[in-house]
Predict the structure.
Amino acid sequence: MILYLHGFTSGPQSHKAQALGSRMRERGYGNQFVCPQLPASPRAAIGLAESLIARHGVTTVVGSSLGGYYATYLAQTHDLRAVLVNPAVVAHLSLQAYIGPQQWLYTGESFEFTRQHIEELRAIEVPALSKPERFWLLVEEGDETLDYRHAVARYAGARQTVLPGGDHSFTRWGDYLDPVIAFAGLTQV
């Protein structure tokens, strides 16, 4: 079972979430995929993810950007596999510039991102991976939002795919759908 966690202001309607869900349905694994709309509060987002992990028997968390930060915490805490796509490495630092009014990209709904949310992010920071072999980092060097080198250093010891060019959206996502499904243990590529 794969739990997909979207990035800051994103949602289940994102290209990566939709592409992975669609590919899993094509492969007969549609019932092995869950992708919720995460709340703005990191504490609430983790609570929702943990309830889905318990309810669905999630074995792998796939997270993009802020979702990668959440996936790191969840995989470390619950001994899961994680695929991290251009992940936020120090979200409590990189997201400070976004304190204030925000808008969900796909619904247009407004929300307030607060200093309390920054503290909630700080509270779930994982200082070191206990089992780096359970993590797979996917980054593109052309990420205009986050410096991919921070992720490469942060996830030392993990499986890493570092690609030239691209951007924060991870432009080659379609090439990695089947390998991600295989990494989750659902099938062989």
Summary: The chain is about 35% helix and 20% strand. The beta strands are 2-5, 33-34, 60-64, 81-85, 100-103, 110-113, 135-140, 159-163. The radius of gyration is 15 Å. The chain has one domain: 2-183.
